[in-house]
Amino acid sequence: MATATLPASPPTPLLTAAEFARRYAGRRAELVDGIAVELPVPQQKHGKVCFRAAQAIGNFADAHDAGHVTTNDSFVRTASDPDRVRGADVCFFSYARLPKGDLPDGLLPVAPDLVVEVRSPSDGWNEVFIKVGEYLTAGVRAVVVLDVAFASEASSGGFEKVTLPFIEQLGPRLAGWIDHHDHVMHERYRGDPRFVLATKAEHGACPEMVTPEVIARLGPVDTIVCHTDFDGLCSAAKWLRGGREPYPGADDDARAIDTRTAVPGPVGQRIDRALRARPRDAALFGIVVRHLAGGLDDASLWQPIDRAAAELAPLEERTRTIAAGYTVHELDPGDRVPPAIRSVAFVDATAHHGQYDKTLLLLLGQERAGISVVVDLDNVTLAARYDSGVSFLELMGLSGGMPTLVSIPKKRLREALTKLGVADGDVQRLVG
């Protein structure tokens, strides 16, 4: 038998950051370990969110003569040897880091003070966390993470692929991590004083864990990474205030909103409605944190918050129309869910993707049955009352998250319905 040895193709030469910046100026691309990667062109919604963020930050920077704002995938060098260059959606450079005047051509010599990344549908959470870790490593000294759960298998990669690289990239720069979502990996960090971790049953919301004693122990930070719901933004504001509530009852409001077991006060309702109406509005997130951190002293900041909240009403009306399509299915007796849970309410909202309030839709389902099941595109969300005793984490074999609220890939819908105890005939009709 004859054999032949074929010459190996020569390896692609790695680009330096400077070479990449020259060759790819004006193109949507990034440099990953010396290799240029072309990126897809984003959709209009992505551009609108980027514009709003840049506008809000730019207005603030101009009003306070604070620094430069750049947008349109501006190059940011995040690593060397091999080099990495990311295209940031929006950047802010304080004059302390980058003096006044015209910006130089090519790569800037310093990292930005602030980076806004708007997640596109093509961006997996694994990629987002890697980018965030690179930005933080490139330009900050100390980071605290608030109300961000350790990733589970439901979040495109799990702990080993998403959370662990993020922690390892930050290394000693990670000053603290405060969170209240269940996860089996909490045990690994029990002896690390930087990690203040609890279960959802122990703390219904994160702000109540952000105390003056915890802040004093973890020490000063220059960057906060937080979840962008009321719970997370209130946690960030409370950190900025040294552990003091932004207003009396803020901790109670956060718990009521995050568990949906009580009615929050008027301030909490006002902000929660704005965030639910614009769940991807980075500029709004900044305004909310600024307002809360300032103790609600600047009444003018209510204007953009109230404008956003007003947009929730038509979404709620549409959501109630979608909820009329719920079908209720009895559960076979078993030990997978508490005996008090006798049925599930099911609706497929795919045709209305992005045009309704999922929080309200899930709550309306729970008015009809003990468990809500909402299908939307490739995802399925399962929800039950916070105090129901249900654990979807155990049911679906997930390592972490909220026991009574999980999202899973649609390919696991049949499995979920079967494990809940939905009759085979109903499962077949619902899954197809």
Description:
The termini are far apart. The N terminus is likely disordered. The protein is of the alpha/beta class. It is built from 15 helices and 16 strands. It folds into 3 domains: 91 residues, tt1808, chain A, CATH 3.90.1570; 187 residues, no CATH class; 116 residues, Diaminopimelate Epimerase, Chain A, domain 1. It is globular, with a radius of gyration of 23 Å. A 5-stranded mixed β-sheet has the order 11-12-13-14-16, with helices on one face. The protein has a 4-stranded parallel β-sheet with strand order 9-7-6-10, with helices on one face. A 3-stranded antiparallel β-sheet has the order 3-4-5. Helix 7 crosses helix 8.
State the domain count. Answer: 3
How many helices? 15
Stretches where pLDDT is under 50 for at least 5 consecutive residues are 1-8
Number of strands: 16
Mean pLDDT: 90
Give the terminus-to-terminus CA distance. Answer: 53 Å
* Fraction of residues in H or I helices: 25-40%
Keywords for this entry:
four-stranded parallel beta sheet, alpha/beta, disordered N terminus, five-stranded mixed beta sheet, 16 strands, 432 residues, globular, 19% strand, Diaminopimelate Epimerase, Chain A, domain 1, 15 helices, tt1808, chain A
